[in-house]
Design goal:
With 207 residues, the chain is an alpha/beta fold. The chain has a single domain (8-54, 90-205), classed as Pectate Lyase C-like (3 Solenoid). It contains three helices and 13 strands. The protein has helices at 26-38, 41-58, 62-82, and strands spanning 13-15, 97-101, 104-109, 111-112, 117-121, 125-130, 139-144, 147-153, 158-161, 167-172, 175-185, 189-191, 197-205. The strands form two sheets. Strands 1, 2, 3, 5, 6, 8, 9, 11 and 13 form a nine-stranded parallel β-sheet that branches. A four-stranded parallel β-sheet has the order 4-7-10-12, with no helix packed on it. 33% of the residues are buried.
């Protein structure tokens, strides 16, 4: 049974519209505030409660369990005949809070997403990532050496970047990362698969 975890509400939300006057940029300021909350005692408790909610949502009745077993058996048989793998693990990150990008066009410097946070682009939100001369990374956005992260869109969402980036998104050394509902443009997506565990990605990319 697939569960759309992005539809499950979280206890605390940080909207970029509340940080428009921040000198470091609205999105960076919202992410900083969300990170501080996620690392607090309250945030850790919230993430644990969110995980319990996910577990409850995934609980199967005997009837559903039987139907799922039959479906998996059918998929396994079809995969065996096609020479592919049908196994798909449900990725359900523990989320303490979320950062919301509303509809509209937003510009931000390079981003590094932290643990236990969902970054959600509402329907129609567009994000462009810029490169500064002092940039320490060739990636516009990175998800590295963290855990329990969601990056998702609700529809009509694009994340693009300035020319010169080697990657629009770089992922390595992570676990429980869920990315979906987005179109990424401007540079390739780089994923270090051997260092990633329990990662689910459903996006479109220009490169």
């Amino acid at each position: 049974m697939e569960l759309d975890t992005t539809k499950i509400p979280v206890a605390k939300t940080f909207s970029v519209t509340d940080y428009q006057s921040a000198p470091e940029g609205a999105l960076n300021a919202a992410l900083a505030a969300a990170t501080q909350y996620a690392r607090s005692v309250e945030g850790m408790i919230t993430a644990a409660l969110y995980a319990k909610h996910i577990t409850d949502c995934l609980a199967l009745t005997p009837e559903k369990a039987q139907a799922q077993a039959e479906r998996r058996a059918h998929q396994a048989q079809a995969a065996h005949e096609n020479g592919t793998s049908a196994h798909k693990t449900q990725v359900a990150p523990q989320i303490a809070c979320e950062v919301i990008i509303p509809s509209g066009h937003f510009t931000c410097s390079q981003l590094a997403l932290p643990s236990n946070i969902r970054l959600k682009l509402l329907a129609g939100a567009q994000l462009h990532l810029t490169k500064a001369e002092s940039a320490l990374s060739d990636s516009a956005m990175s998800i590295q050496r963290v855990h329990d992260v969601e990056l998702c869109g609700e529809g009509g969402n694009e994340i693009s970047c300035d020319p010169g980036f080697a990657a629009i998104l770089e992922i390595s050394a992570v676990r429980q990362v869920l990315i979906r509902g987005l179109h990424l443009a401007g540079a390739p997506v780089k994923i270090d698969k051997p260092s990633c565990h329990q990662v689910s990605i459903s996006i479109t990319a220009a490169n």
